[in-house]
């Protein structure tokens, strides 16, 4: 395939993703950054953790994306009494002849392509682990038998940042399984007005499918082909190294307030999401702007504050933006 054909593929993929965003916006008010972050994560083949107050549209956003991208959708409401088999599925006994197996596997809600794990921090660690196995390995294990999930497969999990009673916070090693963490903010006054007009009237919005599952898989492969220069790789490495308080190049704030920084998975995810953003922008190479834009989404849940940072209520996003500016200035020195 020559260069012109490849460029045409990239342009076509970018246009298709523009159509997806435009169609979702017909129903979802605002949330531009959230929509883009979720789509970048999906194109990069990762999973996302959405954090926001109840009622800000997280569920409707995910359901709208599944409709427009022609993905089968399931929603799991996590509760303390939810068992692993409630999400993975279980073996069910059936009446059989002598030559048949007496058990048949009944698939759980994980056997869908876009899974919304609502309030994931309300389930026990045992159930969380079953979900995280599916996220990491794309498999589920029931009664010692391992079954492979289909492609594409994405988990978008939500958690409430203020209601901590009766919750089981995800351990840091498990949070690291999410490619991105996206903060869903409260709507502005104008956005609230638009929400009321769209949701309390008689008009119904019927979203159209703008992309097929096979097209999505093809675009995911194109994302991997986005070019990355040595300069961009070095910039991303410096960012990851800078998240560690004992790193060679880091800020005074990180040295003072951070206990642990990002691991290699954070570096991989920064590059993958930067590639996804470049593709949606119609480019076949990543820029420093791509890395700067996706870095907070990838790193905010991978920076662990120390006791002083927690006590001072330090915001990890502020540390990340300060680090980006510091590393960029160092690159120009």
Describe the structure.
- With 333 residues, the chain is α/β, with parallel strands linked by helices.
- It is 48% helix and 15% strand.
- It is built from 14 helices and eleven strands.
- It has a five-stranded parallel beta sheet.
- A hairpin with a 2-residue loop joins β6 (139-142) and β7.
- The model has no long low-confidence stretch (mean pLDDT 84).
Topology:
Layout: H1 3-25, H2 32-43, E1 48-52, H3 58-68, E2 73-77, H4 84-88, E3 89-93, E4 103-107, E5 114-118, H5 125-137, E6 139-142, E7 145-148, E8 154-159, H6 172-175, E9 180-184, H7 189-199, H8 213-224, H9 230-242, H10 252-257, E10 258-260, H11 264-280, H12 288-299, E11 304-305, H13 307-311, H14 316-332
Parallel strand pairs: 1-8, 1-9, 2-5, 5-8
Antiparallel strand pairs: 3-4, 6-7, 10-11
Helix pairs in contact: 2-11, 8-11, 9-11, 9-12, 9-14, 11-12, 12-14
By secondary-structure content and strand pairing, the structural class works out as alpha/beta
Q: Could you give the count of β-strands?
A: 11
Give the low-confidence spans.
none
Molecular shape? globular
Work out the helicity level. 40-55%
Element order: H for helix, E for strand = HHEHEHEEEHEEEHEHHHHEHHEHH
Largest sheet: 5 strands, parallel
Note the beta-strand portion.
5-15%
- Tell me the Rg in angstroms: 21 Å
- Total helical elements: 14
Strand order of the largest sheet: 2-5-8-1-9
State the end-to-end distance: 40 Å
* Mean pLDDT rating: 84
């Amino acid at each position: 395939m020559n260069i012109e054909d490849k460029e045409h593929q990239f342009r076509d993929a970018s246009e298709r993703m523009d159509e997806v965003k435009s169609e979702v916006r017909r129903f979802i008010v605002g949330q531009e950054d959230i929509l883009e972050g979720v789509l970048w994560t999906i194109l990069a083949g990762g999973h996302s953790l959405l954090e926001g107050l109840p009622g800000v549209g997280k569920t409707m956003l995910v359901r709208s994306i599944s409709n427009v991208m022609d993905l089968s959708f399931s929603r799991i409401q996590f509760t303390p009494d939810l068992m692993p088999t409630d999400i993975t599925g279980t073996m069910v006994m059936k009446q059989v002849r002598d030559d048949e197996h007496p058990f048949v596997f009944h698939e759980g809600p994980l056997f869908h392509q876009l899974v919304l794990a609502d309030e994931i921090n309300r389930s026990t660690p045992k159930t969380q682990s079953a979900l995280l196995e599916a996220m990491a390995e794309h498999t589920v294990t029931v009664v010692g038998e391992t079954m492979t999930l289909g492609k594409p497969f994405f988990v978008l999990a939500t958690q409430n940042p203020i209601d901590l009673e009766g919750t089981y916070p995800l351990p840091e090693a498990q949070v690291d399984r999410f490619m991105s963490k996206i903060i869903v903010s409260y709507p502005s006054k104008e956005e609230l007005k638009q929400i009321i007009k769209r949701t309390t009237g008689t008009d119904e919005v019927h979203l159209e499918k703008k992309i097929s599952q096979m097209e999505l898989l093809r675009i995911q492969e194109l994302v991997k082909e986005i070019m990355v220069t040595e300069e961009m790789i070095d910039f991303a490495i410096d960012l990851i190294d800078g998240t560690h308080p004992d790193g060679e190049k880091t800020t005074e704030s990180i040295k003072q307030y951070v206990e642990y920084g990002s691991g290699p998975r954070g570096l991989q995810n920064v590059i993958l999401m930067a590639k996804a953003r470049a593709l949606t922008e119609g480019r076949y190479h990543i820029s420093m702007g791509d890395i700067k834009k996706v870095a907070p989404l990838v790193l905010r849940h991978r920076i662990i504050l120390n006791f002083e940072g927690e006590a001072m209520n330090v915001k990890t996003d502020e540390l990340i933006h300060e680090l980006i500016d510091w590393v960029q200035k160092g690159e120009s020195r």
